[in-house]
Amino acid sequence: MREKYMIGAWISKEEKELIDKALNKGFSEKDLFIFGAEYVLKNNLNKFTFNEEELNKYFSKETIEKAKLLLEKTLNDEEKMKLIRTKSKNTVLAGLFYVSSTLAGERKTQKEIAEIFKTTEASIRNTYTLFI
After folding, report:
1. pLDDT value at 46 more than 80
2. What does DSSP assign to residue 8?
3. Contact predicate 26/48, CB 8 Å
4. Is the pLDDT of residue 7 over 60?
5. Is the pLDDT of residue 44 over 60?
6. What's the CA gap between 72 and 94, in Å, rounded?
7. Is the overall model pTM greater than 0.90, yes or no?
């Protein structure tokens, strides 16, 4: 049996379960339309995956490890995910690394982090509290 999903398409129960799992990993319906829920889950992706090699240029190993732990904890919190899902990847990662760098003792300013993630300081201020 098919049912109508939020995006206005008629889908099977199995497809709905795939989409729900992908949404819980932080993807928006728009992301799923572009990538497909099956691809996202098969490759064990979440919207906020980051390139560790690239970030090594800007952050210490300890900061990156703290960011991984905070992100994993947040991805398992449904209430926070409802809020995060509406934000861009760069904004979320900027907030995440602002908190992580502070916890690791690698004090970076909001301005520095905003430049790294190509976002604004205001976006960081509006997002970092989700990781505390």
Report:
1. no
2. S
3. yes
4. no
5. no
6. 16
7. no
For residue 79 the two structure tokens come to 């209430």
Residue 105 lies in a domain: yes
**How long, in residues, is the chain?**
132
Cβ atoms of 64 and 90 closer than 8 Å: no
Within a domain: 10: yes
**Whether residue 72 sits in one domain with residue 24:** no
Kindly state whether residues 67 and 112 are assigned to the same domain: yes
3-state SS, 42-100, equals: HCCCCCCCCCHHHHCCCCCHHHHHHHHHHHHHHHCCHHHHHHHCCCCHHHHHHHHHHHH
pLDDT in tens, 25-37: 777 666 665 556 6
Closest CA to 106 of 55, 71, 72, 42: 55
